[in-house]
C-alpha cells in the first residue's frame, strides 16, 4: 500500500498498528486455536503450553510484515518449511491455520482490505507448508 501524500510504501506492520497489534494478533490466534474445537487437529500439532509458539509467531510476523526482525535475531532465517517438516501438514491443517488466522484478524477488527492482502500472502505460505498429500 502506498501513502497518497508522500508516495512512499506503507508497511503492513505499520498498517496493522505495530508490535502491540501484532502481539494481539498472535495471542488471539493461539487463544482461538486452544479454545475452539474446529481447530483441534491443528492444536494437536503444538506442545501443551502455547507460550513458546505465541512468541515465535509474534516474532516471525513482526519481520514478515516489515517490522523488526525479532525472529531472525533469535533463530536465524525462518526456514519455515524445514522447521515444520516434522509435523504432518495437509490440506485440513492448512485450512484450519488459515481459518484461525482469519478469525483472529476479524476479532481484532483489522481493516478488511488489509485482512484480504495478508490472507492472500499467508495462503501462499500455508499451502507451501503442506507435506502430506491429504
TrEMBL record:
Pfam families: Bac_globin. SUPFAM superfamilies: Globin-like. One of its GO terms (molecular function) is metal ion binding. The keyword Transport applies. CDD domains: TrHb2_PhHbO-like_O (cd14773). Its cofactor is heme. Keywords: Heme, Iron, Metal-binding, Transport. The keyword Heme applies. PROSITE patterns: GLOBIN_FAM_2 (PS01213). It comes from the Bacteria. Belongs to the truncated hemoglobin family. Group II subfamily. This is Putative oxygen-binding heme protein. The lineage of its organism: Bacteria, Pseudomonadati, Pseudomonadota, Betaproteobacteria, Burkholderiales.
Amino acid at each position: 500500500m502506498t501513502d497518497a501524500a508522500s508516495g512512499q510504501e506503507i508497511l503492513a506492520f505499520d498498517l496493522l498498528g505495530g508490535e502491540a497489534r501484532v502481539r494481539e494478533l498472535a495471542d488471539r490466534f493461539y487463544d482461538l486455536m486452544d479454545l475452539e474445537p474446529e481447530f483441534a487437529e491443528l492444536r494437536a500439532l503444538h506442545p501443551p503450553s502455547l507460550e513458546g509458539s505465541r512468541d515465535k509467531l509474534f516474532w516471525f510476523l513482526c519481520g514478515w510484515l516489515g517490522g523488526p526482525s525479532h525472529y531472525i535475531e533469535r533463530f536465524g532465517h525462518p526456514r519455515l518449511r524445514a522447521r515444520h517438516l516434522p509435523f504432518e501438514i495437509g490440506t485440513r491443517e492448512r485450512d484450519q491455520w488459515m481459518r484461525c488466522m482469519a478469525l483472529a484478524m476479524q476479532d481484532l477488527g483489522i481493516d478488511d482490505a488489509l485482512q484480504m492482502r495478508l490472507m492472500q500472502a499467508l495462503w501462499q505460505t500455508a499451502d507451501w507448508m503442506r507435506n502430506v498429500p491429504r
